[in-house]
Amino acid sequence: MTGDNSCKSIIKNALLNKNPIFVSGMVIAPVIVLANNLNDAITLVTAFSLLTFFTLLVSSFIPKSIVYTIRIIIYTLIGALVYVPLAILLRYLMPEGVEALGIFFPLFITSSFIISRSESIFFRESKGKMLLDIVFCIIGYDAAVLLFAVIREILATGTAGGNIIGMPIVFSAFEKPFGGFILLGFIAALFRSILLLIKKIRNTNT
Predict the structure, then answer these.
(1) Which pTM was predicted?
(2) pLDDT at residue number 1
(3) Can you list the positions of beta strands (E) in 68-184?
(4) Alpha-carbon distance 199 to 149, whole Å?
(5) Is residue 113 within 8 Å of 23, Cβ to Cβ?
(6) Any idea where the domains of the chain sit in the sequence?
């Protein structure tokens, strides 16, 4: 039972309570700049998910006995090794999307997400729970990016996935990075407020 509760806690934190985008605010620069619509967001989360998953998976075998500074360098080297074949593959599968990612794709190698998950989880959890944490943290990140991109596209262009939905008014400023930053901040604040409200309701009922 304790193990089940622990796994549920990992999943809940990854998706909601410590959501990488809406709560922790991790790796948001490419989201603000690139996630203007659903199609671009799909390319973004595909590149992020694959690079992050395989980098974290290999990094989990780095011994804790290695000095922290050296571990960070090793994480980066592992990320670079994963990036090369992944970039070749994605350029073949989605060339235009990867081209649009620009410098942000290789910058995922040094993202705070990889370092924080490596240092906070790998030395405290079993391999099974570690893998669970990786998968659901990535899912939490991806879901937040896709949700943000859909809302942004609707508000900025009146389309969803490129399909016109007939918005009576659009706000083209949301397509710009400053508009994306403001919108993401608003959505994140709303997300956190909902979580707090749910927590208060549960505490009241108990």
Answers:
(1) 0.88
(2) 47
(3) 159-160, 163-164
(4) 27
(5) no
(6) 2-205
